[in-house]
Each structure stands twice: as structure tokens, then as C-alpha cells.
Amino acid sequence: MKPKTRSDLFRWIYFALLWLVGATAIVVLSEFAVGPALQWLLYNMPYQFPTCERVGRMALFIIFMGFFAGTITWFYEKKTSNR
Questions:
Q1: Which domain of life is it from (predicted)?
Q2: Residue 75 and residue 12: Cα distance in Å, rounded?
């Protein structure tokens, strides 16, 4: 029974890390590429990088959402594969 539990743990870690990488890429692109470009194009205002407090809040949000999405995906796959 241990190999099955270990496999489930690795699968959960895989889904959580996949979500974390995806969410991080989206946040980085929106904060540092798309956001400034739209702000410059639409409002002609100088861009200011996010504060450390905002970056910390974004990081915590990504981490918690990664755990949540990894857990939900793991449960769904476990249910559909009849393990």
C-alpha cells in the first residue's frame, strides 16, 4: 500500500507545482509586461513597479491557490481513475 500512497503524493506535488508555475507566469507577465504596456498606451502615465507588500501578497495568493488547485485536481483524478 505504500507505493500507491507515494504515487498519490508525487501526483499531488506534480499538480500543485504545475499550477504554481502557471500562476507565477501569468502574474509576472501581467505585472511586468501587459500592465505597463496597457497603462502607457491608454493613459500615457509612467509605470511604477509593485511594492514589496503587494509582491508578498501576490506570492501568498499564488502559493495558496497552488495548494488548492493541486488538491482539487488530485482528488478529481483519483476519483475518475477509481484508485
A1: Bacteria
A2: 9
| Cα distance between residue 19 and residue 13, in whole Å | 10
What does the buried/exposed string (b/e) look like for 36-75 if buried means 16 or more CB atoms within 10 Å of the residue's CB?
beeeeeeeeeeeeeeeeeeeeebeeebeeebeebbeebbe
Neighbours of 15 (CB within 10 A): 19
Report yes or no: 71 and 20 within 8 Å, Cβ to Cβ.
Answer: no
Residue closest to 60 by CA, chosen among 28, 24, 34, 11: 24
As given in the structure block, the three cell numbers for residue 1 are 500500500
pTM above 0.90, yes or no: no
Q: What is the grid cell recorded at 58? A: 501576490
